[in-house]
Amino acid sequence: MSDLFSLAKMMAEGRISRRGFMKTAAAYGAASATLGSSAFSARAADGPLVGFSFPSFDAFRWPHDRHYFEMRANELGLRYIIQGANEDVSTQDSQIDAMLSQGIQALIIIPVNVEAGAKIVERVKSDSNIPIISYNYVIPSAAIDYWAGRDNYLVGELQAKQALKEAKKGNWAIVSGPEGIDVARQKTEGALRVLQPFIDSGEIKIVSHQWHDNWRPESALKQMEDALTANNNDIQAVVANEEGLALGALKALTEEGLNGKVWICGEDVWPEGARAIVKGDMAMSAWTDLIQMGRVAAEAAHALIKGETPQSNDSIDVGGKKIPGMRIQSRVVNRESLPEFLKLTDWLKPEDIGLKG
Q1: Can you tell me whether residue 159 is helix, strand or coil?
Q2: In the CATH scheme, what is the homologous superfamily, with its name and number, of domain 4-144+290-328?
Q3: What angle do CA 251, 252, 255 make, to 5 degrees?
Q4: Where are the alpha helices (H) located in the chain, listed in sequence order?
Q5: What range(s) does the Periplasmic binding protein domain occupy (predicted)?
């Protein structure tokens, strides 16, 4: 076997043990990661080495998170290995093994699956005892040392408050992501906190609310098609946890000629969502300051490796352990604020979404 990919394949097939993989990989002294997409910083050859494991790079936002992290890591003199797991748990597990064999001193992880992520970080902590940072999601394990994620409650609150300002009262729908993920639960709870008095008074009736096992637009499309059929197209607003779900719901509305007539929101400002905002088909999207999130992850890894305490503005209790972290704030992006948003970030180009530069 001549590379880490072959070694990982042998381990997955049970032909060598995990311990054997680690020992052999370390003996190779590999100079670069070979499991999927990877990047090594060219600067600070003797700086601390950090591993950053992404679920994939397919989602629009992940390359941006990667870029923001790299910018700050370079400033801090960190070296880094960055890999995407193609949305496969076993691939993520093997890639992290490869990172460990190359001597990473801290791990930042966005898990493909939070439950599987908990098992991965607990094994890493047991085997290597390096600092572990949970990124975007809060992995439900006391093995993590720090987390960086959006204020999900705030996202839901921003969406609901904007809807109350702009949408008609009446029949509303809520499209939620996986119930088992804190991101989806907290966004939904944040929205319902704002809406509950209007639900209690009867001004708003939630005629459709579903949790989806995934974030696929097709799931939201089906929910909205069923909701429109059940209510004779009498729906005034749709609050969706995430942009893909919002776009799926929007497709169902468009098929009935209701685009631009039913208030709808998403979250993350995808190019498709921004174009829908420009056209007037989508009312708003919420954007989390991912520039800050990427910087916070790099700074936390740097501090933890040095034995220092990273800055935090919140903590969570996992298994009786208080774990510090940083809640990243979000903003409303609508047709009015979109030009300013484009100037403040490199998220999108005006010409790509139907605006003049």
Answers
A1: helix
A2: Response regulator (3.40.50.2300)
A3: 85
A4: 4-12, 18-28, 62-76, 89-101, 114-128, 152-166, 182-201, 217-230, 243-255, 271-279, 290-305, 338-344
A5: 50-308
Cα separation, 305 vs 215, whole angstroms: 34
Is residue 240 within 8 Å of 219, Cβ to Cβ?
A: no
User: Half-sphere exposure (CA, 13 Å, Cβ side) for 299?
Assistant: 14
- Are the beta carbons of 268 and 243 closer than 8 angstroms? yes
> What does each of the 357 residues of the chain score in pLDDT, given as a tens digit?
334 445 544 554 555 555 454 445 443 333 333 333 344 444 456 899 999 999 999 888 899 999 999 999 999 999 999 999 999 999 999 999 999 999 999 999 999 988 999 999 999 999 999 999 999 989 999 999 999 999 999 999 999 999 999 999 999 999 999 887 888 999 999 999 999 999 999 999 999 999 998 888 999 999 999 999 999 999 999 999 999 999 999 999 999 999 999 999 999 999 999 999 999 999 999 999 999 999 999 999 999 999 999 999 999 998 899 999 999 999 999 999 999 999 988 889 998 898 875
User: And the tokens for 229?
Assistant: 């059929």
DSSP string, 166-199: HSPSEEEEEEE--TTSHHHHHHHHHHHHHHHHHH
Burial of 278 (0-12, 13-18, 19+ CB in 10 A): middle
Residue burial 216-249, b: 16+ Cβ < 10 Å; e: rest: ebebbbbbbbebbeeeeeebbbbbbbbbbbbbbb
Domain spanning 152-287+331-353: CATH superfamily: Response regulator (3.40.50.2300)
Rounded distance between C-alpha atoms, residue 226 and residue 94, angstroms: 41
